[in-house]
User: Which sequence fits this backbone?
């Protein structure tokens, strides 16, 4: 491999490294997930993350909310205004969840 | 006999419409007194409510632990509510709390609520949990304090003054995306509880979330409540009491009267007004008019119940 080829290879790799997360975020994938609770809704409603990543929910409402997995995998206590709940997803799969205080509030975490 | 029943139902329906008007009028007047007669009371000549000795008082949605702008002093407004009840010339035989005793199901909130409710002159207190009371992961805080009556199931029944009371829980089996749920086990228990009971026994059924659908997008209802109503239909006088929505909404259907109580903590918006059923901030002098209790008296002739709503505004 010649000198300029190495430089190009390094540049290409660097470019991929920089672009990959950006592309992933645009597609709704993240290494660490953040979900805000605003006006009785989870935002984003659906989030895709890699296995081993943690997701943090933060309640921005004046009303308490919970995050409870349909299948019982995770369950937060009541989060008052400004309180957070974090859960680490080790196993790939699709996790549906809801607020047990306001069951109309639903969301999904997809773990790849 | 059947014709007579049908005729009564028709009369009741008309009466209901008349009272619906009166109820609206009261809301406009600031809600000092809201007389609501039960369906059976349609045969009463006077139709006067609240004249008898109060059988019980319903307190709801105290949300001890709440500290936001909509009411920074929920301890104070619960205390005022208790003073209002204690000052009634004739003390009710019992008190019912229809849930959301606490805001975040915290032990300290429950302890404080119990301490405050302990100041009621009427010591017989019957409760059902709200969804705010059952958010601790193991749901033990409510049941360790109030679970004895139901053997930690949440639902139970008892009799007082010839009235049969049924306490139900519709906040434990929540369905994602859906309404409150009673569940098949509880519905089967109700069926067994009512079996062999005379249809002339006045019934009071209470739960936290409304047992009829008031507003589905906000989850203001109970998905399997229609199965409960089928079981209640044969009774001549049924009063269904709920909290949860922090405002009075009422409906009469046949012999069943539905009524939601005001909160002692803070008001909530009317169905569909705003992004969701959060605390509603009103001017400080308006707040006492939007908080209060429901007092229920037993009318002897005919045998039915009369509901009276009172606010904290003197």
Assistant:
């Amino acid at each position: 491999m010649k000198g300029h080829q190495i430089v190009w290879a390094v540049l290409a790799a660097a470019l991929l490294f920089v672009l990959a997360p950006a592309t992933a975020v645009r597609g709704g994938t993240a290494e660490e997930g953040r979900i805000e609770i605003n006006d009785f809704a989870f935002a984003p409603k659906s989030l895709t993350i890699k296995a081993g990543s943690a997701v943090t929910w933060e309640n921005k409402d004046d009303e308490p909310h919970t995050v409870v997995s349909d299948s019982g995998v995770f369950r937060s206590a009541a989060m008052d205004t400004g309180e957070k709940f974090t859960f680490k997803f080790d196993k790939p799969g699709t996790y549906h969840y809801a607020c047990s205080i306001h069951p109309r509030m639903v969301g999904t975490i997809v773990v790849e | 006999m059947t014709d007579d029943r049908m005729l009564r139902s028709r009369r009741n329906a008309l009466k209901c419409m008349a009272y619906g008007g009166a109820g609206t009028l009261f809301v406009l007047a600031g809600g000092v007194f809201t007389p609501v007669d039960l369906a059976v009371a349609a045969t009463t000549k006077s139709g006067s409510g609240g004249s008898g000795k109060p059988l019980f008082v319903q307190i709801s949605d105290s949300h001890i632990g709440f500290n936001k702008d909509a009411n920074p002093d929920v301890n104070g407004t619960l205390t005022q509510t208790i003073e209002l009840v204690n000052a009634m010339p004739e003390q009710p035989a019992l008190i019912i709390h229809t849930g959301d005793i606490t805001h975040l199901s915290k032990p300290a909130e429950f302890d404080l609520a119990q301490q405050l409710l302990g100041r009621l002159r009427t010591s017989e207190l019957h409760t059902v949990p709200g969804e705010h009371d059952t958010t601790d992961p193991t749901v033990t805080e409510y049941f360790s304090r109030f679970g004895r009556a139901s053997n930690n199931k949440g639902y139970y029944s008892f009799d007082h003054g010839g009235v049969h009371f049924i306490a139900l829980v519709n906040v434990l089996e929540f369905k994602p995306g859906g309404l409150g749920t009673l569940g098949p086990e509880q519905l089967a228990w109700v069926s067994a509880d009512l079996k062999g009971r005379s249809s002339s026994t006045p019934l009071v059924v209470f739960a936290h979330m409304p047992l009829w659908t008031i507003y589905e997008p906000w989850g203001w209802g109970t998905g399997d409540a229609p199965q409960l109503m089928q079981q209640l239909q044969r009774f001549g006088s049924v009063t269904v009491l709920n909290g949860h929505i922090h405002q009075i909404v009422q409906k009469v259907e046949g012999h069943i009267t539905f009524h939601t109580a005001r909160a002692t903590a803070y008001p909530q918006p009317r169905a569909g007004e705003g992004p969701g059923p959060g605390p509603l901030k009103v001017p400080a002098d308006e707040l006492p008019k939007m908080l209060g209790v429901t007092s229920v008296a037993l009318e002897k002739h005919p045998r039915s119940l009369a509901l009276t709503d009172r606010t904290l505004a003197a």
